[in-house]
C-alpha cells in the first residue's frame, strides 16, 4: 500500500480525497432513515466515489458499466434529497447578522490560494484548488463555529441538490473523445469547405464562431469544442489559407464558444446547478435570461475576429 501511495502524483491525491468525501456522502445517505431514496442515492455516490478512488486501476469496460448503473439509478428516479440536520431559519438569520460579510472570506481564499499555488509552484491549478478548498473549509468552520460533521452534512445537501449533473463534466469529456475518434472534425471541415467560398474570409469567420457556439451547446464545454472546430475550420481555413494569427483568433473563438455555454442545459455547472441551488421554478430560467446577452456577444466576437483579419 505504501509503495502505491509513493507512486501517486499530487493530482492523484486530489482524486483520492474527492473519492473519500463522496464515500462519506454515500454512507450518510444510506444511514438517512428519512430519505425516501436512500438506497439509490447512497449507491449513486458510492459508485461515483469508486470511480475517483479506483478508476485508474479499473478497466474501461468496468468503468463503463459503473456509469451505466449510475444512469440506471437516475432513470428509475432513485436519486433524491434527504435530511441534513439544518439549523432553523431564525438561527440562520441571527448568524448572518453576527458574521456579516466575513462569510465571504473562505470563498475569496479559494481563488487567491489557487492562483498563488498555480502560478508560483509546479503543482498546478487543480491541486492548488484542492489545497485552497481545504484551507477555506477550516476557515469557514472557524468563522461559523460549526463542526466538521455538519460540514459533511452541508456538503451532502449541496451535492444532492446538484444531483446527477455533478458527473456531467466527465461525461462531456468522454463525448468529446468519442467525437474525435469518429472523425467529426474532418466531416465538419469538408462540409464547411463545400458551402463557404475559400476566398470569403467573413463567411469563414462566421462559420468558425457559430460552429464554436453550436458545438459548445452540444458538448456543454467550449474546451472540447475548441479542439474540434479549430482543427476543422480555424487552422486550415484561416491560419493556413489566410495567414490569420492563431494567438488572436484562438481566444476570440473561445469567447464565441462561451456564448454557446450561456445557451445550453448541457453546461450544467453554469445553467442547471444554479437553478437547483436557488430552487428556481423555471428549470431554464438562467438560460432564458442569458440568451440575449449571448447572441449579442456572439455577433461582436464575429465582427472582432473579422476586424483583426
UniProtKB/TrEMBL annotation:
The entry's protein name is DUF979 domain-containing protein
Listed A to Z, the keywords are: Membrane, Transmembrane, Transmembrane helix
InterPro entries the record matches: DUF979
Q: What would be one Pfam family of this protein?
A: DUF979
Q: Does the keyword Transmembrane apply?
A: yes
The organism is: Veillonella tobetsuensis
Top-level division of the source organism's lineage: Bacteria
Q: What is the lineage of its organism?
A: Bacteria, Bacillati, Bacillota, Negativicutes, Veillonellales
The UniProt transmembrane annotation reads 13-31, 43-59, 96-120, 126-146, 158-179, 191-215, 222-242, 248-277, 289-308
Amino acid at each position: 500500500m505504501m509503495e502505491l501511495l509513493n507512486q501517486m502524483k499530487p493530482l492523484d491525491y486530489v482524486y483520492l480525497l474527492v473519492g473519500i468525501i463522496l464515500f462519506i456522502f454515500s454512507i450518510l445517505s444510506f444511514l438517512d432513515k428519512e430519505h425516501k431514496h436512500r438506497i439509490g442515492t447512497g449507491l449513486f455516490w458510492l459508485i461515483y466515489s469508486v470511480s475517483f478512488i479506483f478508476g485508474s486501476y479499473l478497466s474501461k469496460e468496468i468503468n463503463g458499466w459503473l456509469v451505466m448503473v449510475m444512469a440506471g439509478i437516475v432513470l428509475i428516479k432513485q436519486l433524491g434529497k434527504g435530511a441534513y440536520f439544518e439549523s432553523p431559519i431564525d438561527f440562520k438569520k441571527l448568524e448572518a447578522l453576527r458574521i456579516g460579510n466575513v462569510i465571504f472570506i473562505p470563498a475569496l481564499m479559494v481563488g487567491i490560494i489557487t492562483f498563488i499555488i498555480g502560478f508560483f509552484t509546479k503543482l498546478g491549478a487543480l491541486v492548488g484548488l484542492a489545497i485552497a478548498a481545504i484551507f477555506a473549509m477550516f476557515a469557514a468552520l472557524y468563522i461559523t463555529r460549526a463542526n466538521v460533521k455538519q460540514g459533511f452534512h452541508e456538503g451532502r445537501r449541496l451535492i444532492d441538490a446538484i444531483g446527477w449533473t455533478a458527473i456531467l463534466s466527465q461525461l462531456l469529456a468522454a463525448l468529446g473523445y468519442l467525437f474525435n475518434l469518429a472523425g467529426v472534425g474532418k466531416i465538419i471541415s469538408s462540409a464547411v469547405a463545400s458551402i463557404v467560398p475559400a476566398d470569403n474570409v467573413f463567411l469563414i469567420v462566421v462559420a468558425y464562431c457559430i460552429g464554436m457556439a453550436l458545438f459548445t451547446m452540444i458538448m456543454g464545454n467550449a474546451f472540447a469544442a475548441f479542439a474540434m472546430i479549430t482543427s476543422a475550420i480555424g487552422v486550415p481555413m484561416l491560419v493556413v489559407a489566410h495567414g490569420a494569427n492563431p494567438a488572436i483568433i484562438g481566444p476570440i473563438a473561445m469567447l464565441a464558444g462561451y456564448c454557446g455555454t450561456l445557451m445550453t442545459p448541457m453546461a450544467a455547472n453554469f445553467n442547471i446547478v444554479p437553478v437547483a441551488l436557488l430552487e428556481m421554478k423555471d428549470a431554464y430560467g438562467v438560460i432564458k435570461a442569458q440568451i440575449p446577452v449571448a447572441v449579442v456577444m456572439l455577433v461582436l466576437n464575429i465582427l472582432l475576429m473579422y476586424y483583426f483579419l
